[in-house]
Amino acid sequence: MTLAWVDLLVIGAYLLGTLGLGVYISRLASRDMNAYFLAGKEIPWWALGVSNASGMFDIAGTMWLVSMCFVYGLKSAWLPWVWPIFNQVFLMVYLSVWLRRSNVMTGAQWLQTRFGSGRGAELCQLVVVIFAIVSAIGFIAYAFKGIGKFAAIFFPWQLSPDTYALIIFAVTCLYVIKGGMYSVVFTEVMQFVIMTIAAVAVGLIAINLVTPEQIKAATPEGWDNIWFGWQLDLNWQGLIDSVNDKIRADSLELIGLMIMMMLFKGVLFSMAGPVPNYDMQRILATRSPKEAAKMSGLVSLVMFFPRYMMVAGLTVLALVYMGPEIQAQGGSFDFEQILPYAIHNFVPVGLTGLLIAGLLAAFMSTLAASLNAAPVYFVNDIYKRYFRPDAEERTYVKVSYLVSLVLVLIGVGLGLMLSSINEIMQWIFGALFGGYAAANLLKWHWWRFNAYGYFWGMMAGLLASLCLPLFMPGTHPLFAFPLLLALSLAGSILGTLATRPEPDEVLCAFYRQVRPWGCWGPVHDKVKEADPGFDADTHPLRDMVNILVGMAWQICLVALPIYLVIQQWTQVWVALALAILTSWFLKKNWLDKLKD
Fold it and tell me: Which residue ranges traverse the bilayer (predicted)?
């Protein structure tokens, strides 16, 4: 792809601006570990929320959304439940508050507040540290490969994808490793502004170049309908025949069943709380529990509209202007080519550079967030605890530099070998996330659950996920989830009942500080006996109602920009009205009732 000198100038200015801002701010991070990893808990909640949204605005996920919107139309608004995207609703309603009340630095350290400091708690922390580090290495490896392929498509110089990736990694790592969370957050805020401008511009270009009649002629009946039954009932025959093959490959012909499975899995994963990555780190970096909740709520509010303007814009441009070409290619079409095709043919000079800078920012945001989140687990939970508990704070920061560099080197090494280890990496990620739900759900909601139950529940889930591809090859991950959940739940309950409960002082201290709802009756009674004036102030029913409304709110925020781009004006006003109504309800029943 050939870029004009103006576009190259815009991209160069973006890279230099990001590096300059990150290095300039980095002086704030070298005071101590709290400053380096959590920015001293001084950053405003809105900046952390925008930063978190920026880290989630990854280009790989965005291109997946484009392919889903292309194939399934408005019904694709439900498909991010597979991650699940509505975990942000659970976080904003109550889990961010619970997590922030612990006042710790890492997810592994949080386990100490829940299970104490015995042998079982040490095993739990070790499992979480391994989870955090291995998943970070995997994200770095995938980012390395993805950045290289992305740059090779757009940049005019004849360099290999790996060479491009090394250059972009070098720029990103310079400010991330040196500046810690300060550099990550403030550069991500700048990157999010760039991405938003670029994304909205793509949507407006699509509105100007494509009419509703053209979209209707290029899509099957029901494509613009967000509702679904058991059957998908989208027939692309005669339009783009190969899309029907993709639907079968995605196993989404019975879309009602698949959405139900996504909902079942997603609710349990969401109740388990965030995995130990950048999402959790930003919650712990907020100034107070109330700001943690507001930060998580802001992520959904600012992320969906610009992202889906880009998704819908690229989709309709491809549908109308690439449809005949895709039909001619048969089953060989690569949906990832939608992005370069649309930019090359429809985005004007100057804006092309800004759009590529925005997409580059998406890559760099995800990499920066992952790279900054992982070293704290090794430094705080391994090095400081077992090797140098009395070292100076600057020593821990310097060790963090080294750990970050080592993680990058390992991740880059894996990225260079990625084509040969892709299946193994998929197993690793399946094991890590497959074994997470049961144990982490129980730790919040059942007082009797102890450290050994957590350890054996995690191990049972991880081992079951690793073995699943051997004994059940070809099984869709969604349909395997109930089995993985059952095995992990069995490990959690058996490990718990075979060992003694945690000491009363540990349980009472945790309950008094975090105040979770669930099966905490015996502990609540003991805390109340010791302190008759204690009020847990829990509202599980109100939280559940807010979660249901919040999920509807999210769907409205996703559907609104898609309807806007395809110019279905009645649906635009309906989605807008519902978004305003659900926002008002959440303000009254959630935001106005938040407490620290």
Answer: 6-25, 45-66, 78-99, 120-144, 164-185, 192-211, 254-275, 296-322, 354-378, 399-418, 424-442, 454-472, 478-497, 544-564, 570-586
